[in-house]
């Protein structure tokens, strides 16, 4: 995944695709190298910018609870099976590894998880145990892979020095989400909100997650957001919009705009309309 390392409030984060991964503060440089980022110039960002991205699982050394203790009833022909031990089945690709969980199940160890394992439990359990498929045939496969469920399997690739990191609100059939995008760093960027003259938008601004309730919000031609508590289809009609014109957006994006006063249903009827677009 293409990524950028950013800094906010003394913490480092890796932003990639639509997620922000907090980097373990005690091992930041080692964790970033393990994640594939070998040159570092963190970009300072605001909390508002960072919070546009959904939180991912923290990037930190992978530690297996009770590593080094024998698995009850899990002995193989060549000796006991240990919690936290990494095994590789003969004949499979070299990067296909599993790590033994406390219950004896085998959890997939992706290339990224393998690198972070070596900073955690792998400091003391350095050997990869090569076994036949038949030797571990009776062991269960863990329900989840080792490490963060949303860690990219192969780690990250830094954006180039000629690119500036941007947050882009992307829409598809599944809704809207924020993703990492880039723009040439040579292009001048100024802070501000730009709305096409004579246009505005009516959006359902919700919190993160499918179960979050939304607030209908009017964004006018000046880039000011007006919340519409209690709004209904009649409110939408009074504002000159149709229900299909209402977009969906996370509240974190609305937080970047100037806030106007809340508009009641009666006030909305007296508000000058703007073209949908």
From TrEMBL:
<dbReference type="GO" id="GO:0005576">
    <property type="term" value="C:extracellular region"/>
</dbReference>
<dbReference type="Pfam" id="PF05108">
    <property type="entry name" value="T7SS_ESX1_EccB"/>
</dbReference>
<dbReference type="InterPro" id="IPR042485">
    <property type="entry name" value="T7SS_EccB_R3"/>
</dbReference>
<dbReference type="InterPro" id="IPR007795">
    <property type="entry name" value="T7SS_EccB"/>
</dbReference>
<protein>
    <submittedName>
        <fullName>Uncharacterized protein</fullName>
    </submittedName>
</protein>
């Amino acid at each position: 995944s293409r990524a950028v390392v950013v800094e906010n409030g003394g913490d480092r984060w890796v932003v990639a695709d639509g997620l922000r991964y907090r980097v373990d503060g005690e091992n930041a440089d080692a964790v970033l190298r393990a994640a594939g980022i070998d040159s570092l110039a963190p970009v300072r960002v605001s909390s508002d910018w960072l919070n546009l991205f959904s939180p991912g699982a923290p990037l930190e050394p992978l530690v297996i609870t009770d590593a080094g203790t024998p698995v009850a009833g899990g002995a193989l022909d060549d000796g006991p099976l240990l919690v936290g031990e990494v095994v590789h089945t003969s004949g499979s690709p070299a990067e296909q590894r599993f790590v033994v969980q406390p219950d004896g199940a085998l959890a997939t160890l992706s290339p990224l998880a393998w690198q972070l394992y070596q900073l955690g439990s792998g400091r003391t359990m350095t050997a990869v145990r090569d076994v036949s498929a038949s030797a571990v045939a009776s062991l269960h496969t863990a329900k989840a892979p080792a490490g963060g469920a949303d860690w990219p399997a192969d780690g990250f690739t830094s954006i180039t020095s000629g690119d500036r990191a941007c947050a882009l609100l992307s829409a598809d059939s599944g809704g809207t989400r924020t993703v990492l995008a880039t723009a040439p760093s040579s292009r001048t960027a100024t802070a501000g909100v730009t709305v096409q003259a004579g246009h505005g938008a009516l959006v359902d601004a919700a919190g993160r997650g499918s179960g979050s309730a939304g607030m209908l919000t009017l964004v006018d031609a000046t880039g000011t957001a007006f919340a519409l508590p209690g709004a209904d289809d009649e409110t939408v009609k009074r504002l000159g919009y149709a229900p299909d014109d209402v977009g969906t957006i996370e509240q974190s994006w609305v937080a970047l705009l100037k806030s106007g006063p809340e508009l009641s249903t009666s006030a909305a009827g007296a508000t000058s309309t703007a073209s949908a677009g």
